[in-house]
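Re: beta-D-mannopyranose structure - here you go.
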Amino acid sequence: MSDPLKLTRYTGNPILLPSSNVWETDNVFNAAIVRHQGLVYMLYRAQGLDRISRIGCALSTDGHHFNRLHEPVLVPETEFEEFGVEDPRITELDGVFYMLYTAYSSHGTRVALARSENLIVWERLGIVLPDENNKDAVLFPEKINGRYAMFHRRMPDIWLAYSDDLLHWTAHQNIMQPRPGLWDSQRIGAGGPVFKTEAGWLNFYHGFAEEHMYCLGVALHDLQNPARVLKRQEEPVLCPLAPWEQWGDVPNVVFTCGGLETEDEYWIYYGGADHVMALATVSKNDVRTWLGN
Ligand code: BMA
Protein backbone atom coordinates (compact mmCIF):
# COMPACT_ATOMS: atom_id res chain seq x y z
CA MET A 1 0.00 0.00 0.00
CA SER A 2 1.36 3.40 -0.92
CA ASP A 3 0.61 6.66 0.87
CA PRO A 4 -2.88 8.09 0.45
CA LEU A 5 -3.43 10.51 -2.42
CA LYS A 6 -3.12 14.13 -1.25
CA LEU A 7 -3.51 17.54 -2.89
CA THR A 8 -0.63 20.03 -2.60
CA ARG A 9 -1.51 23.69 -2.01
CA TYR A 10 -0.26 26.23 -4.53
CA THR A 11 2.23 28.51 -2.75
CA GLY A 12 0.57 31.68 -4.07
CA ASN A 13 -2.77 30.96 -2.34
CA PRO A 14 -5.26 32.46 -1.97
CA ILE A 15 -5.65 33.29 -5.66
CA LEU A 16 -8.81 35.45 -5.51
CA LEU A 17 -9.97 37.73 -2.69
CA PRO A 18 -13.07 39.88 -2.21
CA SER A 19 -12.81 43.30 -3.85
CA SER A 20 -14.29 46.76 -3.44
CA ASN A 21 -16.98 45.97 -6.04
CA VAL A 22 -20.15 46.26 -3.98
CA TRP A 23 -21.49 42.82 -4.97
CA GLU A 24 -18.28 41.02 -3.91
CA THR A 25 -16.97 42.88 -0.87
CA ASP A 26 -17.49 39.92 1.49
CA ASN A 27 -16.76 36.58 -0.16
CA VAL A 28 -15.57 35.07 -3.46
CA PHE A 29 -15.59 31.27 -3.42
CA ASN A 30 -16.75 27.92 -4.88
CA ALA A 31 -15.85 28.65 -8.52
CA ALA A 32 -16.35 26.75 -11.75
CA ILE A 33 -13.21 26.62 -13.92
CA VAL A 34 -13.09 26.34 -17.71
CA ARG A 35 -10.42 26.61 -20.39
CA HIS A 36 -11.64 28.55 -23.44
CA GLN A 37 -9.70 30.09 -26.33
CA GLY A 38 -6.36 30.01 -24.52
CA LEU A 39 -7.67 31.54 -21.29
CA VAL A 40 -8.76 30.11 -17.96
CA TYR A 41 -12.19 31.37 -16.90
CA MET A 42 -13.13 31.31 -13.24
CA LEU A 43 -16.85 31.76 -12.56
CA TYR A 44 -17.14 32.27 -8.85
CA ARG A 45 -19.82 32.77 -6.25
CA ALA A 46 -19.64 36.28 -4.81
CA GLN A 47 -21.36 37.94 -1.86
CA GLY A 48 -21.49 41.59 -0.86
CA LEU A 49 -23.03 43.26 2.17
CA ASP A 50 -26.53 42.22 1.08
CA ARG A 51 -25.43 38.54 1.41
CA ILE A 52 -27.03 37.71 -1.94
CA SER A 53 -24.90 35.35 -4.04
CA ARG A 54 -24.10 36.38 -7.61
CA ILE A 55 -21.72 34.79 -10.13
CA GLY A 56 -18.62 36.80 -11.04
CA CYS A 57 -16.03 36.04 -13.69
CA ALA A 58 -12.23 36.33 -13.62
CA LEU A 59 -9.80 35.50 -16.43
CA SER A 60 -6.25 34.20 -16.45
CA THR A 61 -3.56 33.17 -18.90
CA ASP A 62 -1.76 30.85 -16.45
CA GLY A 63 -4.48 29.61 -14.09
CA HIS A 64 -2.75 31.33 -11.15
CA HIS A 65 -3.23 35.07 -11.69
CA PHE A 66 -6.74 36.29 -12.41
CA ASN A 67 -8.23 39.60 -13.57
CA ARG A 68 -11.89 40.04 -12.82
CA LEU A 69 -14.76 41.63 -14.67
CA HIS A 70 -16.30 44.47 -12.70
CA GLU A 71 -19.88 43.28 -13.12
CA PRO A 72 -21.27 39.85 -12.28
CA VAL A 73 -22.25 37.58 -15.20
CA LEU A 74 -25.28 36.02 -13.45
CA VAL A 75 -27.48 37.79 -10.90
CA PRO A 76 -30.71 36.54 -9.28
CA GLU A 77 -33.74 37.04 -11.50
CA THR A 78 -36.34 34.34 -10.96
CA GLU A 79 -38.52 33.60 -7.94
CA PHE A 80 -36.27 30.61 -7.19
CA GLU A 81 -33.19 32.87 -6.96
CA GLU A 82 -34.43 35.44 -4.45
CA PHE A 83 -31.53 34.76 -2.03
CA GLY A 84 -28.93 34.07 -4.67
CA VAL A 85 -27.30 31.96 -7.37
CA GLU A 86 -24.65 29.70 -5.86
CA ASP A 87 -21.91 27.16 -6.51
CA PRO A 88 -21.71 27.02 -10.34
CA ARG A 89 -20.32 23.92 -12.07
CA ILE A 90 -19.65 24.28 -15.80
CA THR A 91 -19.29 21.57 -18.44
CA GLU A 92 -18.63 22.06 -22.17
CA LEU A 93 -20.76 19.82 -24.39
CA ASP A 94 -20.64 20.12 -28.21
CA GLY A 95 -19.07 23.58 -28.05
CA VAL A 96 -21.69 24.99 -25.65
CA PHE A 97 -21.06 25.73 -21.97
CA TYR A 98 -23.68 24.52 -19.50
CA MET A 99 -23.77 25.79 -15.94
CA LEU A 100 -25.60 23.92 -13.21
CA TYR A 101 -26.02 26.10 -10.15
CA THR A 102 -27.97 26.27 -6.92
CA ALA A 103 -30.96 28.61 -7.04
CA TYR A 104 -31.72 29.62 -3.46
CA SER A 105 -35.01 31.17 -2.30
CA SER A 106 -37.82 30.78 0.22
CA HIS A 107 -38.76 27.67 -1.81
CA GLY A 108 -35.45 26.12 -0.71
CA THR A 109 -32.53 25.11 -2.94
CA ARG A 110 -33.14 24.05 -6.53
CA VAL A 111 -30.81 22.82 -9.29
CA ALA A 112 -30.92 25.29 -12.20
CA LEU A 113 -29.34 25.17 -15.67
CA ALA A 114 -28.04 27.96 -17.91
CA ARG A 115 -26.17 27.92 -21.22
CA SER A 116 -23.57 30.17 -22.84
CA GLU A 117 -21.33 30.24 -25.87
CA ASN A 118 -18.78 32.67 -24.41
CA LEU A 119 -19.02 32.14 -20.61
CA ILE A 120 -20.09 35.78 -20.14
CA VAL A 121 -23.64 35.97 -21.51
CA TRP A 122 -25.86 33.29 -19.95
CA GLU A 123 -29.31 32.13 -20.99
CA ARG A 124 -31.42 30.42 -18.34
CA LEU A 125 -32.90 27.04 -19.31
CA GLY A 126 -34.79 26.58 -16.04
CA ILE A 127 -34.98 24.41 -12.95
CA VAL A 128 -34.00 20.86 -13.85
CA LEU A 129 -35.03 18.99 -10.69
CA PRO A 130 -38.35 20.66 -9.79
CA ASP A 131 -40.11 20.31 -6.44
CA GLU A 132 -37.12 19.03 -4.50
CA ASN A 133 -34.38 20.53 -2.37
CA ASN A 134 -31.19 19.58 -4.15
CA LYS A 135 -27.73 20.99 -4.89
CA ASP A 136 -24.18 19.94 -5.87
CA ALA A 137 -25.28 18.99 -9.39
CA VAL A 138 -22.67 18.59 -12.10
CA LEU A 139 -22.82 17.36 -15.70
CA PHE A 140 -20.48 14.70 -17.05
CA PRO A 141 -18.12 15.92 -19.80
CA GLU A 142 -19.56 13.48 -22.36
CA LYS A 143 -22.63 11.34 -22.95
CA ILE A 144 -22.69 7.86 -21.44
CA ASN A 145 -24.41 5.16 -23.51
CA GLY A 146 -25.97 7.92 -25.61
CA ARG A 147 -27.44 9.93 -22.72
CA TYR A 148 -26.34 12.97 -20.74
CA ALA A 149 -25.35 12.13 -17.18
CA MET A 150 -25.17 14.17 -14.00
CA PHE A 151 -24.40 13.78 -10.34
CA HIS A 152 -26.72 15.49 -7.88
CA ARG A 153 -27.30 15.40 -4.17
CA ARG A 154 -30.35 14.14 -2.37
CA MET A 155 -29.43 14.54 1.26
CA PRO A 156 -27.08 13.13 2.35
CA ASP A 157 -25.93 11.08 -0.66
CA ILE A 158 -24.55 11.50 -4.19
CA TRP A 159 -27.02 10.47 -6.88
CA LEU A 160 -26.64 9.79 -10.59
CA ALA A 161 -29.29 10.62 -13.23
CA TYR A 162 -29.59 10.51 -17.04
CA SER A 163 -31.29 12.73 -19.61
CA ASP A 164 -31.83 13.06 -23.37
CA ASP A 165 -32.27 16.85 -23.38
CA LEU A 166 -30.49 18.13 -20.20
CA LEU A 167 -33.86 19.31 -18.86
CA HIS A 168 -35.72 16.12 -17.95
CA TRP A 169 -33.78 13.71 -15.75
CA THR A 170 -34.67 10.05 -15.13
CA ALA A 171 -33.12 6.78 -13.92
CA HIS A 172 -32.08 8.37 -10.61
CA GLN A 173 -29.78 6.14 -8.58
CA ASN A 174 -28.30 6.62 -5.14
CA ILE A 175 -24.65 5.75 -5.76
CA MET A 176 -22.48 6.99 -2.86
CA GLN A 177 -23.23 7.52 0.82
CA PRO A 178 -21.51 9.07 3.85
CA ARG A 179 -19.28 6.69 5.81
CA PRO A 180 -19.87 6.51 9.58
CA GLY A 181 -16.76 7.30 11.62
CA LEU A 182 -14.87 8.93 8.74
CA TRP A 183 -14.36 12.56 7.61
CA ASP A 184 -17.38 12.23 5.27
CA SER A 185 -19.74 10.77 7.86
CA GLN A 186 -22.65 13.25 7.60
CA ARG A 187 -23.18 14.21 3.96
CA ILE A 188 -21.31 14.22 0.67
CA GLY A 189 -21.62 16.05 -2.66
CA ALA A 190 -19.91 16.02 -6.04
CA GLY A 191 -17.19 18.53 -6.88
CA GLY A 192 -16.48 19.81 -10.41
CA PRO A 193 -16.97 17.81 -13.61
CA VAL A 194 -15.26 14.42 -13.35
CA PHE A 195 -11.95 13.78 -15.12
CA LYS A 196 -11.74 10.90 -17.57
CA THR A 197 -8.92 8.39 -17.02
CA GLU A 198 -8.34 4.96 -18.55
CA ALA A 199 -9.36 3.41 -15.25
CA GLY A 200 -12.59 5.40 -14.80
CA TRP A 201 -14.06 8.79 -13.93
CA LEU A 202 -12.09 10.61 -11.26
CA ASN A 203 -14.39 12.41 -8.82
CA PHE A 204 -13.02 14.92 -6.32
CA TYR A 205 -15.99 15.33 -4.00
CA HIS A 206 -16.66 17.01 -0.66
CA GLY A 207 -17.69 15.50 2.63
CA PHE A 208 -18.87 16.89 5.93
CA ALA A 209 -18.55 15.42 9.44
CA GLU A 210 -19.89 16.09 12.94
CA GLU A 211 -17.02 18.46 13.77
CA HIS A 212 -18.39 20.91 11.20
CA MET A 213 -15.53 20.47 8.79
CA TYR A 214 -15.72 20.21 5.01
CA CYS A 215 -12.89 18.16 3.44
CA LEU A 216 -12.27 16.89 -0.09
CA GLY A 217 -11.97 13.24 -1.05
CA VAL A 218 -11.50 11.17 -4.18
CA ALA A 219 -13.46 8.34 -5.79
CA LEU A 220 -13.26 6.47 -9.09
CA HIS A 221 -16.39 5.56 -11.09
CA ASP A 222 -16.80 3.02 -13.86
CA LEU A 223 -16.62 4.64 -17.32
CA GLN A 224 -19.70 2.88 -18.75
CA ASN A 225 -21.68 2.79 -15.52
CA PRO A 226 -20.65 5.58 -13.12
CA ALA A 227 -23.06 4.21 -10.54
CA ARG A 228 -20.34 1.62 -9.87
CA VAL A 229 -17.83 3.14 -7.45
CA LEU A 230 -14.61 1.27 -8.22
CA LYS A 231 -12.48 2.91 -5.59
CA ARG A 232 -12.92 5.44 -2.80
CA GLN A 233 -10.07 6.58 -0.62
CA GLU A 234 -10.61 6.40 3.15
CA GLU A 235 -8.49 9.47 3.86
CA PRO A 236 -9.40 12.92 2.57
CA VAL A 237 -7.20 14.52 -0.13
CA LEU A 238 -7.48 17.98 1.45
CA CYS A 239 -8.73 19.25 4.82
CA PRO A 240 -8.86 22.82 6.17
CA LEU A 241 -5.43 23.55 7.65
CA ALA A 242 -4.30 26.83 6.11
CA PRO A 243 -5.49 30.05 7.79
CA TRP A 244 -7.69 31.03 4.82
CA GLU A 245 -9.41 27.62 5.07
CA GLN A 246 -9.92 27.73 8.82
CA TRP A 247 -11.04 31.35 9.20
CA GLY A 248 -13.40 33.17 6.87
CA ASP A 249 -17.15 33.46 6.52
CA VAL A 250 -17.79 29.83 7.49
CA PRO A 251 -14.84 28.29 9.37
CA ASN A 252 -13.14 25.04 8.34
CA VAL A 253 -14.33 24.65 4.77
CA VAL A 254 -12.62 23.50 1.58
CA PHE A 255 -15.21 23.11 -1.18
CA THR A 256 -14.61 22.53 -4.90
CA CYS A 257 -16.80 23.21 -7.94
CA GLY A 258 -14.18 22.72 -10.66
CA GLY A 259 -10.68 21.91 -11.81
CA LEU A 260 -8.38 21.69 -14.79
CA GLU A 261 -6.37 18.91 -16.34
CA THR A 262 -2.84 19.81 -17.48
CA GLU A 263 -0.37 17.48 -19.17
CA ASP A 264 0.98 16.15 -15.86
CA GLU A 265 -1.42 17.29 -13.17
CA TYR A 266 -4.95 17.87 -12.01
CA TRP A 267 -5.56 21.37 -10.64
CA ILE A 268 -8.38 21.52 -8.12
CA TYR A 269 -9.75 25.00 -7.44
CA TYR A 270 -11.61 25.42 -4.18
CA GLY A 271 -13.26 27.91 -1.88
CA GLY A 272 -11.57 28.43 1.49
CA ALA A 273 -13.85 29.08 4.50
CA ASP A 274 -16.55 30.38 2.10
CA HIS A 275 -14.39 33.51 1.74
CA VAL A 276 -11.58 33.20 -0.86
CA MET A 277 -10.51 31.07 -3.82
CA ALA A 278 -7.48 28.79 -3.68
CA LEU A 279 -5.77 26.09 -5.75
CA ALA A 280 -4.27 22.70 -4.94
CA THR A 281 -2.78 20.16 -7.34
CA VAL A 282 -1.95 16.50 -7.66
CA SER A 283 0.32 14.83 -10.22
CA LYS A 284 -1.07 12.28 -12.66
CA ASN A 285 1.77 9.98 -11.57
CA ASP A 286 0.47 10.00 -8.01
CA VAL A 287 -3.07 9.37 -9.29
CA ARG A 288 -1.79 6.42 -11.38
CA THR A 289 -0.04 5.00 -8.32
CA TRP A 290 -3.26 5.36 -6.33
CA LEU A 291 -5.25 3.69 -9.12
CA GLY A 292 -2.79 0.80 -9.15
CA ASN A 293 -3.38 -0.08 -5.50
C1 BMA B 1 -22.73 23.97 1.47
C2 BMA B 1 -22.84 24.92 0.29
C3 BMA B 1 -21.50 25.52 -0.07
C4 BMA B 1 -20.71 25.97 1.12
C5 BMA B 1 -20.70 24.91 2.20
C6 BMA B 1 -19.98 25.35 3.46
O1 BMA B 1 -23.99 23.59 1.91
O2 BMA B 1 -23.74 25.94 0.62
O3 BMA B 1 -21.72 26.62 -0.90
O4 BMA B 1 -19.39 26.23 0.72
O5 BMA B 1 -22.03 24.57 2.53
O6 BMA B 1 -20.59 26.44 4.06
